[in-house]
Design a protein that fits this description.
Layout (H helix, E strand, L loop, with lengths): L2 H14 L2 H6 L1 H19 L11 H18 L10 H13 L8 H13 L3 H14 L5 H14 L6 H4 L5 H6 L6
């Protein structure tokens, strides 16, 4: 499959969904993504981040493939975060090269998601900056909430059970802290 073919499949599928499906797709959507894209995800995850930086649309498709799709394909399992590092590497390089600026706002928002999903405070600060510059009132509050959680705890406590991490006393005292 050529770059143009897999890129078109990922982008057509993702952007044909409604925003509600992006965030609350459910088991049926998870299954559809797994059936349609698991093989592609497994194949492309073996490549270095630079492989996806030839143009803005390829970078965007890679970020969706490595950041969004695993959250559906592996919902409730640690594997949903297994390619976050690759998504972040693609996103960071795309932003550094200005590839994001060549995309419409809705698509740029997905280039910025890996920063928001990172458990690194510097990435969170960059997320808030990028979403602020984007000027999208829908995405910015979520970026700020993610930042607040990482600033407070240094990680996302709601991931602890999935990742096999013991909760710390401050996380237990805070209760169920989620960015949504």
């Amino acid at each position: 499959m050529t770059v143009e073919e897999w890129r078109a499949q990922v982008l057509k599928f993702w952007f044909s969904l409604s925003p509600d499906q992006w965030w609350n797709g459910g088991a049926d959507l998870d299954h559809r993504i797994r059936q349609s894209f698991l093989k592609l995800w497994a194949e492309k995850r073996q490549l270095p981040a630079d492989s996806f930086l030839t143009d803005p649309l390829t970078a965007l498709a890679a970020v969706i493939l490595f950041d969004q799709f695993p959250r559906n394909m592996f919902s409730g399992h640690a594997d949903q975060f297994s390619t976050d590092h690759l998504a972040l590497a693609v996103a960071a390089a795309a932003v550094d090269r200005g590839l994001d600026e060549q995309l419409p706002a809705k698509e740029r928002a997905f280039i910025y998601m890996p920063f928001e999903h990172s458990e690194d405070l510097a990435d969170q600060k960059r997320s808030v900056l990028l979403f602020t510059e984007l000027g999208d009132d829908e995405f910015l509050p979520f970026a700020k909430k993610h930042h607040e959680i990482i600033e407070r705890f240094g990680r996302f406590p709601h991931r602890n059970a999935i990742l096999g991490r013991a909760p710390r006393p401050d996380e237990i005292a805070a209760g169920d802290v989620k960015p949504w």
